[in-house]
Design brief:
Length: 875
């Protein structure tokens, strides 16, 4: 046996918690549960996650005798490592003198020439323990790959259950873990568990002098809960607060972490790996191919896997097409970029240009960002010029214009860039700004070469925003539909279908021409000139479903929306998030069909996916209000009111949004029984002249509030072109009730007949359901007056009979549900055969129900039964 000088006691004692360090009992509870259930527990996280601090707290408070060993780079020597492990275990065994500990305490700490002999002796001594002991080995990564071949690897593989091992370090330990995961089990805690929660960030902030008003959310999101970054940020806030005249509660954008990362992370790595990290963190997201290009050597892919295995602030993500993408921790990558910029600024710029070339055809935003950081603005302009149309499709015109505005001078005044901005303004309906930008662009065309001049001409011909006949403001089509604008299908690298799609979106958003929007979308769906953008077809189909819903064709809207959502299941997650239009289309269809539960579910999905600054979000919240007003649920109304307030003065609807917001507030007040308040809210809207949906809702609200003249003027303001199927149904019923109030029976029945004529083909039920009490008698009289829609009217009368709360006659309760339904149909002039067809039952069954009704009501026939039923309040 070799004699050993006792090592420093700091290696076998858990570290003390530093001043201001946070106690985290949730981690202690998780580790206790893991050690109780598993013989081996592994804790892995990058530097700065507080592994040693948390483990030290746990080791001092756990009920188990706890052996502690902190490793360093010299522990790669098997003899030194064995000496440390045995000494740590013996120190823990002394804390609890039991008969089984004697063999363990008698062990020599030196390693025999035959290592296997010493290992077997230690394992034999551990088997004699009568109570479990915990062995914590901290910073296992410092021992290097040799750790697996020494006593630690032996204990991990063969130690008895009385020894509970806890290995803590950065990255994957160099021992075999899969046998534990799929065999006896393995306890694991990683960076996700060790990261601060938002509440813990708030606790740390309070301990460092922040008051109760401090919002921990932004700092938590900025740092992803990385403890060292949280402390650095809060320390910087304290220092800023101590500077005279400077008060701040906002976390700094540039945290002072570069020196920490240089010393605690990069200097601990092998030089090739550290060099790779500095190159690869040029981009927060990267693929294996980009990693190789940034590193400049074929080993880049292998080193990327090493970073992933060692937990170097990087995670693997699934990407479209099954390709793996890797993402660095954003703060870590930013600090690495700062380090490289200090050490070699020319190399940092060159790497940004490499990344820009990689992304210029796949991610325009990232390509432009990298080009600007690499001081290559021309490369950024080239990327925008090639792909602005696809970028607008995915991200919207506002994001595209901001990308152009981020360009430095003089590139922000480049002709092609100005023309793209002109199109963005036109798509948002600002034709004055679009014309001004287009004129500036055309005045600079002499600066362009032939290729870029061709690109500009293509851009101009696709979406001409100039204030002339061919501008993006097509006139209403003729009676035969009229021709669509003649856009060129070639001459621009973006697809023709994408251009049509953007035009259609603009038509719909600006309320200019629903027919034109539908035709454009149908053309976009039909066009298949570019197989590389199949997403455009799916997005166009979703928008086409919404266009049909707005146009009143609910059947087509529902069918197209369902198809688009089925197709979208094959897309990546980010593309599926673009399907808000399809969910909104289904929500609109369900609402007008009085399927309120389905409507609310679909609209909730549309709201989650739709951007608050987009048209879809605004329309979704308005229909959400209508659904909740229809159900009358107070908790839902309160929620809708809150969401509506969040959308005020937002969106791209322009002045029409104010009208939507006003009528929605009034509907909420009406649903809560405050009709006077509702009328006061809508008073600024006058008596019409707004979008068709607003005027439809306004006319009915004014009628219910007793303002008959204003309601009549509002209804007359809606032209035939404004009235789709469900709006026409609703307005016609409003006009019928207004005529009934004026005792104009002919107009009353004509308007009811027109309403049911528009409602029946699309199963539009909501306008009838919300006027049930007022229409009950009118529908009955209309059936006698004469109608070509007997089945539809009888079904509405049957529905009314099912929901009347005042029915209390004894004979009513003796009628079965089917008998009451047949009785409601008997109020019409329908024959037994027609009633049977409407109810999907046989004629004999109808006659059987009729005989039962006569018997229970004591009636001799249909007329007598209906008279008795009316007298007793059954119908």
């Amino acid at each position: 046996m070799s004699a050993f000088v006792p090592g420093p006691q700091s290696k076998t004692r858990p570290p003390l918690r530093g001043l201001g360090a946070l106690e985290r009992p949730r981690l202690g509870d998780a580790l206790t549960a893991a050690t109780d259930a598993h013989r081996l527990t592994v804790i892995t996280a990058p530097a700065g996650y507080g592994k040693s601090t948390f483990l030290g707290d746990w080791a001092r408070t756990t009920d188990l005798p706890c052996a502690w060993l902190s490793l360093d780079r010299f522990d790669a020597q098997p003899a030194r490592l064995f000496h440390g492990v045995v000494g740590a275990i013996q120190a823990a065994a002394c804390q609890l003198p039991l008969p089984g500990n004697s063999a363990l305490l008698a062990l020599e700490q030196g390693l025999d020439d035959d290592c296997a002999v010493s290992y077997d002796v230690l394992l034999g001594a551990l088997e004699q323990l009568t109570e479990p002991i915990a062995l914590v080995i901290d910073d296992f990564h410092l021992a290097g790959p040799e750790l697996a071949g020494g006593i630690v690897g032996v204990l991990a593989a063969s130690a008895p259950p009385t020894l509970r091992m806890i290995l803590s370090g950065r990255g994957h330990p160099p021992i075999q873990l899969e046998r534990h995961r799929f065999g006896e089990g393995l306890g694991e805690l990683c960076a996700a568990e060790l990261a601060f929660t938002q509440d813990e960030v708030a606790q740390v902030a309070y301990s460092l002098g922040q008051d109760a008003s401090f919002d921990a959310g932004p700092l938590w999101e900025l740092t992803d809960g990385w403890p060292v970054a949280v402390h650095a940020s809060l320390t910087a806030l304290v220092q800023a607060r101590n500077v005279p005249g400077r008060i701040t509660h906002t976390p700094p954008e540039n945290l002072p972490l570069s020196n920490y990362i240089a010393e605690e992370v990069l200097e601990q790595l092998d030089p090739p790996l550290a060099d790779f990290v500095l190159h690869a963190t040029t981009c927060e997201w990267l693929s294996r191919r980009l990693a190789v290009e940034l590193y400049g050597q074929p080993e880049g892919g292998l080193l990327l896997e090493t970073c992933l295995r060692n937990g170097l602030f990087i995670e693997e993500h699934e990407y479209c097409g099954g390709e793996s993408m890797y993402r660095w921790h954003s703060l870590f990558a930013a600090q690495c970029r700062r380090i490289l910029e200090r050490r070699d600024p020319l190399l940092a710029e060159r790497l940004h240009r490499v990344a820009a070339r990689y992304y210029q055809d796949t991610d325009v935003c990232e390509g432009v960002n990298q080009a600007l950081q690499g001081h290559a603005p021309r490369q950024a302009v080239t990327s925008i010029g090639r792909h602005w149309l696809e970028f607008s499709l995915r991200n919207g015109s506002a994001a595209l214009e901001q990308l152009c505005l981020d360009l430095p001078a003089p590139w922000s005044e480049d002709s092609e860039v100005l023309m793209v901005r002109s199109v963005c303004r036109a798509l948002d309906g600002d034709n004055d700004a679009a014309s001004e930008l287009s004129e500036r662009a055309l005045s600079r065309t002499s600066e362009l070469d032939s290729v870029r001049r061709g690109m500009l001409d293509s851009c101009r011909s696709l979406l001409e925003p100039l204030p002339v006949a061919s501008r993006l403001d097509p006139r209403p089509p003729a009676d035969d539909g009229g021709p669509l604008p003649d856009f060129p299908a070639e001459g621009h690298p973006a697809t023709y279908s994408t251009a049509l799609f953007l035009l259609a979106q603009t038509e719909f958003r600006l309320h200019r021409n629903a027919y034109q929007a539908t035709m454009l979308l149908e053309s976009a769906v039909a066009d298949r000139s570019d197989k590389h953008l199949e997403e455009a077809e799916i997005f166009a189909k979703a928008e086409l479903a919404l266009a049909y819903a707005v146009a009143g064709d609910l059947d087509a809207a529902d069918e197209l929306a369902t198809q688009a959502l089925e197709w979208a299941d094959e897309l990546d997650r980010s593309s599926q998030d673009r399907m808000a239009a399809a969910w909104l289309a289904r929500g609109i269809a369900c609402y007008w069909r009085d399927e309120l539960k389905g409507a609310r579910a679909h609209l909730a999905k549309a709201l989650r996916l739709g951007n608050k600054l987009s048209t879809l979000g605004a329309v979704s919240v308005v229909y959400r209000v209508l659904v909740d007003c229809a159900t009358g649920d107070e908790s839902h109304l309160a929620n809708s009111s809150t969401v509506l307030g969040a959308f005020h003065d937002r969106g791209l609807y322009g002045v029409s949004w104010n009208a939507f917001h006003t009528i929605a507030r009034a509907k909420i007040a009406e649903a809560r029984g405050d009709m006077d308040g509702a009328l006061a809210i809508v008073r600024p809207l006058g008596s019409g002249g707004h979008t068709p949906l607003v005027d439809t809702l306004l006319a009915e609200l004014l009628r219910r509030g007793g303002e008959v003249s204003a309601a009549q003027r509002c209804a007359r303001a809606l032209t035939f072109q404004d009235r789709n199927s469900y709006l026409d149904t609703s307005v016609s019923l409003t006009e019928a009730l207004l005529a009934h109030g004026d005792r104009d029976e002919a107009t009353t029945h004509e308007r009811i007949e027109h309403a049911v004529h528009r409602a029946e083909p699309q199963s539009i039920l909501r306008p009838f359901a919300e006027r049930t009490s007022e229409l009950a008698e009118l529908l009955s009289r209309h059936a006698v007056w004469g109608t070509t829609h007997e089945s539809f009217i009888a079904a509405r009368m049957a529905r009314h009979a099912q929901v009347q709360p005042h029915l209390r006659a004894r004979s009513y309760w003796t009628l079965t549900d089917r008998e009451r339904e047949v009785l409601a149909y008997m109020r019409s002039v329908m024959t037994a055969a027609e009633i049977a067809e409407a109810l999907f039952i046989s004629v004999n069954t109808v006659k059987t129900h009729e005989r039962s009704i006569y018997r229970k009501l004591g009636a001799a026939g249909r007329r007598d039964a209906l008279k008795t039923a009316a007298e007793r309040g059954i119908v």
